[in-house]
Amino acid sequence: MNWDSWPELVLIQSGKDSVEDEFELSTVCHRPEGLEQLQEQTKFTRKELQVLYRGFKNECPSGIVNEENFKQIYSQFFPQGDSSTYATFLFNAFDTNHDGSVSFEDFVAGLSVILRGTVDDRLNWAFNLYDLNKDGCITKEEMLDIMKSIYDMMGKYTYPALREEAPREHVENFFQKMDRNKDGVVTIEEFIESCQKDENIMRSMQLFDNVI
Amino acid sequence: MAAGLATWLPFARAAAVGWLPLAQQPLPPAPGVKTSRGDEVLVVNVSGRRFETWKNTLDRYPDTLLGSSEKEFFYDADSGEYFFDRDPDMFRHVLNFYRTGRLHCPRQECIQAFDEELAFYGLVPELVGDCCLEEYRDRKKENAERLAEDEEAEQAGDGPALPAGSSLRQRLWRAFENPHTSTAALVFYYVTGFFIAVSVIANVVETIPCRGAARRSSREQPCGERFPQAFFCMDTACVLIFTGEYLLRLFAAPSRCRFLRSVMSLIDVVAILPYYIGLLVPKNDDVSGAFVTLRVFRVFRIFKFSRHSQGLRILGYTLKSCASELGFLLFSLTMAIIIFATVMFYAEKGTNKTNFTSIPAAFWYTIVTMTTLGYGDMVPSTIAGKIFGSICSLSGVLVIALPVPVIVSNFSRIYHQNQRADKRRAQQKVRLARIRLAKSGTTNAFLQYKQNGGLEDSGSGEEQALCVRNRSAFEQQHHHLLHCLEKTTVRPNVRWYSRIERGPSEAMPALSFGWEAHYKLWKSHRA
User: Fold this and answer.
1) Which residue of B has its CA nearest to A51?
2) Which residues of A are less than 8 Å from B4 in CB distance?
3) What is the pLDDT of residues B243-299, one digit of tens each?
4) What confidence score (pLDDT) does residue B428 get?
5) Which residues of A touch B39 (CB under 8 A)?
6) Between chain A and chain B, how many beta carbons pairs sit less than 8 Å apart?
7) Inter-residue contact B429 to B498 (CB < 8 Å)
8) Is any Cβ of chain B less than 8 angstroms from the Cβ of A5?
9) In the 8-state DSSP scheme, what is residue A77?
10) How much is the average pLDDT of B18-45?
11) How far is B20 from chain A (nearest CA, A)?
């Protein structure tokens, strides 16, 4: 493949083939908005933003992460299982404008909510993660997908081995706890209310505060 | 560790918030490691060249020297930097690994030096990036081969002398393997070579028709039948020598089973066996036909020359190592022969009085044509036959030309390797001699010091200050050590002599000097 002649092709016929798309991503450079704007939008300090951006830019020189990269990065932390499905859900949660790529602003916005937001903000973010079709309520099927993807990450080599019905049972427990009016779906109000009543969940929300 | 894993870890941990509402049990508390998020710039001073980098960059790989607390050992509090007394050019590559996650191998540096730097900084060689990995491996393998040859040459060479208590067997085996070690071995080597040549020439001359002086018989006889006794005597003598040599080798071999299975011993056996079989077989006509066939095996004596010629051994080794190419050549030739023979046979079938009587008969034509020999004993007469015949000869050239360069390059490589080994063996002797000289220099210095009375505990400093030459701190301590050893092990009336090995003539004065030291020491103890 003659890489030298590609740039001209990209300029002339941009966005035609998916093969060219991949190359486009690496030539196109996305720059984030200024530091001040990001400081206003997120709850990170200037220094924290600088550190975050340096790490981000080092790993993704083009300034954006697409879904494949995201999945690959996330899978490195869970080598024993298959984390690709959960990584996809996570990617969709971070990609707020649904353009197929996570830029630095999206990345930092998501992290700001998780790490510096109030408990309600975090619960909102988690609800957004579970609500796959973003329609405002979690159905049993959506929850089952999420649960299966999490159990997939655990992998097969656990002792004692995870049973096939474990995700389904877990989903049943979850709905029993969260679904107040027993209508088969969990809305955002039910979710937040039930979580606020649970001591364990409230306490564990503080777990990852000092990650950055 | 994958590149950038440390960078993404905070993100992965943050994303775990997604599991919190689903957890059915309380989650474990977070580790109390407070990562100082105020990122600082570290200065790493490598032999004067300053490298500055973020602390985070180095923290990416915590199982290396720079990423772990091991670097604190190199911290210089006065200057506030980490000082390493290593090669700054190599350090550049190490630091780039932290920055980019890929370890590149410099082309112009010695691979051994690079390996040593990697070992120092705690990087495994497997981290070398894909772009440079193949070249790195090739160079490393080449280096290792060369070093292995060096060691082999040193061990196998005649440098280290045999231990004094070696048995007759060991001495004999050494004489056989290295004829240059002693005169007797050399004589034996040349004598066997001469007899191999004589035997081969006798075999050849036996078959020449020679006309006797009498000219009585009109039928010409080969020399072998005119002078049967002479040839028989020569043959017997040669076989006796070969048998003796074989038995001696068998006796001297350190591992007889391995010797029996080796190629050279098989050649020896095949060379002498026909004679003995001929002796045992009675002289009747039925068996003598088979007996004549056995005589063909006498020609294998010529292979005994491979002990005498290194080039022949290299050729044999090359053929062995190119076995797959040769096999391919044979296979493709066979395929082509069968195809073309079939085609020619059917093309020439119609012609009467044709030579192409069957497909196997056409094999001969195909082989002769493909190898461009063209004897002309079988020639196609039809037009189709001629067309296919020309295609056959063209393709023959191609098929044969394909594996030949591979074999040639193999031979060239092995041959050059051998040349290099020989050259290095010759240089090795000079090198070892020089090293021995340098080593004996240290012992010399100590004895000189002793001679000048520097060891006397109650020595008065002033008189000796003039004759005791100026010694470095290292020498002083070393001499003190030798002195302690002497005091520990040597009893008063026993001398300590110079243990300089027999080296080239320059070391001879040292030997005589050692006797002087001994005499003085003895005198001082007597007094």
Assistant:
1) B39
2) 55, 58-59, 73
3) 999 999 988 888 888 888 988 888 888 888 888 887 887 666 666 666 677 778 888
4) 79
5) 47, 50-51, 54
6) 97
7) no
8) no
9) T
10) 75
11) 6
Chain B residue closest in CA terms to A58: B100
Local confidence band at B436 (pLDDT 50, 70, 90 cut-offs): confident
Q: How far apart are the first and last CA of chain B?
A: 72
Place B484 in a pLDDT band, splitting at 50, 70 and 90: confident
Q: Does A87 touch chain B (CB under 8 A)?
A: no
User: Crossing angle for the helix pair B323-347 and B383-401, nearest 10 degrees?
Assistant: 180
Mean pLDDT in residue range B467-491: 66
Confidence label for A66 from pLDDT (cuts 50, 70 and 90): confident
Among partner residues A47, A58, A59, which is closest to B38 by beta-carbon distance? A47
- Long-range contact set of residues B365-374: C-beta below 8 Å, sequence gap at least 24: B365/B341, B365/B389, B366/B336, B366/B337, B366/B340, B366/B341, B366/B392, B367/B337, B369/B340, B369/B393, B369/B396, B370/B333, B370/B336, B370/B337, B370/B340, B370/B395, B370/B396, B370/B399, B370/B400, B371/B396, B371/B400, B372/B396, B372/B397
> What's the pLDDT score for residue A3?
47
Examine the pLDDT at B366 and tell me if it is beyond 90. yes
What is the model's pLDDT at position B1? Answer: 37
Check if the beta carbon of residue A52 is closer than 8 Å to that of residue A44.
yes
Are the Cβ atoms of B13 and A174 closer than 8 angstroms? no
pLDDT tens per residue, range B81-117: 999 999 999 999 999 999 888 899 888 988 999 999 9
Neighboring chain A residues of B56 at a CB cutoff of 8 Å: 51, 54-55
Q: Would you call A72 an interface residue with chain B, using a CB distance cutoff of 8 Å?
A: no
Q: Which residue of A has its CA nearest to B34?
A: A210
**DSSP states of B362-401 as a string?**
HHHHHHHHHTT---SSS---SHHHHHHHHHHHHHHHHHHH
Residue B15 has pLDDT above 50, yes or no: yes
For B21, the closest of A59, A201, A203 (CB atoms) is A201
A-chain residues near B95 (CB < 8 A): none
B149 against A8, higher pLDDT: B149
* Partner-chain residue, chosen from B21, B30, B38, that has the shortest CB–CB distance to A207: B30
For A173-188, write each residue's pLDDT tens digit.
888 888 888 888 888 9
pLDDT at B467 over 60: no
| B241-267 exposure pattern, b = at least 16 Cβ within 10 A, e = fewer | bbbebbeebeebbeeeeebeeeeebeb
Contact: A115, B16; criterion CB under 8 Å: no
A-chain CB neighbours of B16 within 8 Å are 207-208
Nearest to A174 among B12, B22, B54 (CB): B22
Give dist(CA B42, CA B58) in Å, integer.
9
Closest CA to A49 of A62, A32, A64, A66: A32
Interface contact flag, A59 B8, Cβ < 8 Å: yes
